[in-house]
Amino acid sequence: MFYQLYELNHAAMAPYRAVADIMRLAYANPLNPLSQTPWGRTMAAALEMFERTTRRYGKPSFDLPQTVVGDKKVAVREEIVWARPFCNLLHFSRNLPAAHGPDPRILIVAPMSGHYATLLRGTVEALLPHADIYITDWIDARMVPMTDGTFDFNDYVDYVIEMLHFLGPDTHVIAVCQPSVPVLAAAAVMEEANDPLSPASMTLMGGPIDTRINPTAVNQLAKDKPLEWFAENVIMNVPWPQPGFMRPVYPGFLQLSGFMSMNLDRHLVAHKEFFMHLVKNDGEPAEKHRDFYDEYLAVMDLTAEFYLQTVDQVFIKHALPKGELEHRGKLVDPTAIRNVALLTVEGENDDISGVGQTKAAQTICVNIPEHMRMHYLQPDVGHYGVFNGSRFRREIAPRIINFVREHGRAGKPAVKRVIKGGKSS
């Protein structure tokens, strides 16, 4: 009943949030003389803090209407080009000039770990001037009716393969954090089948390929608890009246609680500073705080079967590095990967995926030629900095683009071949 109580509490707070928001607007109104006083700004700040800490944050938008290609601004149109019950494939279509040649086509596989794909807005924004970008927009499990079936690790791999088939030859794939394992598995399955539509290159960023290396607090939790503990304590049924009513899920608010508890002092300080910025009428830092937490606090539910399989296979059994990972009952063989270039990226201060966990892909994919592989460790960044922020834009994104361009397969013929199996078709 915990999920139901959470929903009930949220509904019970709705009238208080509404009153707080109305009063905040009144205190902040320029026509109100109190809005120009420290007392009025303090009241408005306190009311905004109450409203923001008790609201449910909806799915953010990418909001990338334009980009710069060369030295010109071009319009960007966001469109869904492929859809399944648990995922939409978004394309950021650029209005390029006729004389502009083809750019590399990149599929970004966003993490399905509690946050929406918009967490990678900065990733998309940095790569968009140089590439034709597609991204997986995973759907909140509580919004998917039970009649649409289940979604597990095998389905995730199948989705990646289907999207690569849809996009065609010479597609590059980037996996950010959690999808590193299923993306590597998808590449191995396609290569073993001699699939001509296997990705031209595979970039794995801050991913848990082998969590036995430099285990973090996240890894330690999974190691210390049996799988049954997770099934009994964190899996809940979606409450009425959500579309996914009665679907077993790992609720997003539990994942968010775990993330925040890891750096609770930092979040408390950030909110204290936000309050003081509001009182001092310091608008720019306050707006940056809003932008970050509007994204960070927007969470989605995961299907129970996918979450439990990921915990079991990735964090408890370490199935991939041990050579024991299966897809549809058949062992996944990373040594089959021979034609997919591999770039691994890690952050020096990553407290989610420890240093060396992603680089492990270089070890298990033994048959990728040396000239088709590269590893990069970014100094002075944590997990978030691996795919976002100033250092990502300056130092990581250019390396990704250069690697992708170097290992494209342009001009090589390919024939589409669909790998059957799965529940996503």
Automatic annotation (TrEMBL):
Keywords, ordered alphabetically? Hydrolase
Please report the name of this protein according to its UniProt entry.
Poly(3-hydroxybutyrate) depolymerase
InterPro entries referenced in this protein's UniProt entry, alphabetically: AB_hydrolase_fold, PHA/PHB_synthase, PHB_depo_C, PHB_depoly_PhaZ
Which enzyme type, at the first EC level? hydrolase
UniProt xrefs under NCBIfam families: PHB_depoly_PhaZ (TIGR01849)
Q: Which residues form the PHB de-polymerase C-terminal domain?
A: 206-407
Instruction: Work out whether the entry's keyword set contains NAD.
Output: no
**What is this enzyme's EC?**
3.1.1.75
Q: Name one GO molecular function term.
A: poly(3-hydroxybutyrate) depolymerase activity
